[in-house]
Amino acid sequence: MSPLPPPEEREWPMPKLGIRVDDLAHKGATIFFDVVDPLGALREAVIASFTWLYTSEKHPDNVEGINLILRSMPGVAYTHGSHTHKEIHFSLDHIVNSESRARHEIMGVLVHEVVHCFQYNGKSTAPGGLIEGIADFVRLNASYAPPHWKRCPSTDGQWDAGYQTTGFFLDWLEQRYGYGTIRELNDAMLDREWDPHIFKEVTGRKVEKLWRLYCAESGAQSM
Questions:
Q1: In terms of domains, do 101 and 134 share one?
Q2: pLDDT for the residue 24
Q3: Least crowded by CB within 10 Å, which of 12, 13, 80, 142?
Q4: pTM for the model
């Protein structure tokens, strides 16, 4: 497969960006501010989301504000909010646990979560694995994939397993069918409910066939 062309440089709409830190004395907060500029990091994540999922002619304009909340909590991060205002909750504990590669991990998580602020979801009916996979597809193409991610799928895996499994599958589709393929897939979920036939509309093949081809070309392994 030939490498993807570099994304075009464009001016994208930028929502109001904010940050709240629940515990400035937490070691994770110190690490965060030592390795990233919050405004620059959030702007980069927004630009990555628009670059890989939208065009300047067609993109969402409903998100007026994104607020990043750094706090101690289990897990890594999650995003919620209204149609116009989103909140990204990011674990300070996870930042501490990722100290050896803090900037790369922080940026990767921010890109993933910011995608959730903008991506389409088939009127909330799309598979969760696809939603998470699209976010990791953007993270991968923004060059923030963590070192433990594996491109090679398992023979008993599913295309909608989510996260990096689906993210690498989508990346394969992007390279096989051309830059903008996942953008088309995302766009197909704008104003109608989820239907797996979307994959055939975009690529000419059913998703099950695409997954089999991907596994064959990627050298799928038994678990």
A1: no
A2: 97
A3: 80
A4: 0.93
CA atoms of 147 and 164, how far apart (whole Å):
11
Q: Are residues 130 and 78 in the same domain?
A: no
The residue out of 100, 118, 136 marking a domain boundary is 118
What are the pLDDT digits (tens) for 9-30? 567 889 999 999 999 999 999 9
Judge whether residue 199 has pLDDT over 50.
Answer: yes
Surface-to-core class of residue 18, CB atoms within 10 Å of its CB (0-12 exposed, 13-18 middle, 19+ buried): middle
Alpha helix ranges (H) inside 10-149: 27-35, 38-53, 92-97, 102-118, 128-141
Same domain, residue pair 129 and 174: yes
What does the pLDDT read at residue 153?
Answer: 80
Binned at pLDDT 50, 70 and 90, residue 223 comes out as: very low
Closest CA to 44 of 181, 168, 139, 135: 139
Host H or E run for residue 143:
none
- Per the document, the length of the chain is 223
Opening angle at CA 164, ends 155 and 58, nearest 5: 125
Whole-number pLDDT of residue 2: 45
Tell me the C-alpha distance between 220 and 203, whole Å.
22
pLDDT, one tens digit per residue, over 117-135 is 999 999 999 999 999 999 9
Q: Name the strands in the sheet holding 16-21, side by side, starting at the edge strand that comes first in the sequence.
A: 16-21, 65-71, 85-91, 77-81
Beta-carbon contacts of 6 under 8 Å, excluding residues fewer than 6 positions away, are none
Q: Are 47 and 111 within one domain?
A: yes
